[in-house]
Amino acid sequence: RKEVEQDPGPFNVPEGATVAFNCTYSNSASQSFFWYRQDCRKEPKLLMSVYSSGNEDGRFTAQLNRASQYISLLIRDSKLSDSATYLCVVNPGGYNKLIFGAGTRLAVHP
Amino acid sequence: GAVVSQHPSWVICKSGTSVKIECRSLDFQATTMFWYRQFPKQSLMLMATSNEGSKATYEQGVEKDKFLINHASLTLSTLTVTSAHPEDSSFYICSAVRDQLAKNIQYFGAGTRLSVL
Q: Which tens digit of pLDDT belongs to each residue from A48-73?
């Protein structure tokens, strides 16, 4: 079983749609959680950290369910510029390591 | 603007040659940097943790003699792929922790696409 699992997609949605991604992680001792965005052939960029209480940044909402060991990302009012691969990232403990999911691809069309 | 600079962005080399990739932190000191490798449609895989002034810590399955890491200063880490072969062709990305208060947030270089012929 992979340490971090995501649905690879692609999710094809029209502009303005709401789309949600889920991610599960296997290590119950994991401490920190993030969503990164990666454009084609580019480096990952931090989108947002994920907190137990849930957090929102504009059109993006992230939630963490420790009991079920899953993380979600909700994107409202999708824009064309949201098209990218979204990486679920987990720190399993100790600040050295980040474990990346394989990513979920989002394609927003006009 | 970018906080981590990586060079070169793309390199093509012949099989058997060595390639050096540089990773620099801009305007901050990075005692720890990380090197990742990403194959097409796969996730980033941590190769090694680069520690300034000491030996790198390699992940299981990564050959330390093949992927030489040097972190001689607080702003520069280098990865040398020695005797490169076609199977080493991949996207190599470095990262650094910028804020010691947010140790788990890593900022990434733009990556190096290596093609070994």
A: 999 888 899 999 999 999 999 999 99
Would you call A80 helix, strand, or coil by DSSP? helix
Residues in A whose CB is inside 8 Å of some CB of B read 4, 8, 31-32, 34, 41-46, 49, 87, 91, 95-103
Tell me the one-letter amino acid at B16. Answer: G
Which tens digit of pLDDT belongs to each residue from B89-98? 999 999 998 7
Determine the residue of chain A that is closest to B33 in CA distance.
A96
Length of chain B as a residue count: 117
Rounded to 5 degrees, what are φ and ψ at A86? -105, 125
- β-pairing, A4-6 vs A11-14, is unpaired
Q: What one-character-per-residue DSSP string does B90-117 give?
A: EEEEEEEE--TTSTT-EEE---EEEEE-
Distance in angstroms (rounded) separating the CA atoms of residues A84 and B111: 17
